[in-house]
Write a structure and sequence with these properties.
Blueprint (H helix, E strand, L loop, with lengths): L3 E7 L4 E8 L7 E3 L4 E4 L2 E4 L6 E2 L25
Parallel strand pairs: 2-6
Antiparallel strand pairs: 1-2, 3-4, 4-5
């Protein structure tokens, strides 16, 4: 398995920052919940609050593949 890294880019300033780093992961399912909140794989992050996910810092990390984009096509809306 590979790792997946998520990068948030501010299109107005071209500022980039890593918000997601997970292993094992290949093609995580991604959906914006609202303007501030994104769900990537099993993680929900508020990017406006600066939340990030790094599997190396997760005390509850388990070696399992999170929800992948290919698991569901077409994607369902998360409520």
């Amino acid at each position: 398995m590979d790792t997946a890294r998520g990068e948030l880019i501010n299109v107005q300033t071209n500022r980039k920052r890593n918000i997601y780093w997970n292993y094992p992961d290949a093609d995580p399912y991604i959906v914006w919940i609202d303007n501030d909140t994104i769900k990537i794989g099993n993680q929900t992050l508020n990017v406006n609050k600066g939340e990030t996910y790094d599997w190396r810092d997760d005390d509850e990390w388990e070696r399992e593949l999170p929800r992948q984009l290919s698991d569901q096509y077409p994607p369902k809306v998360i409520e």
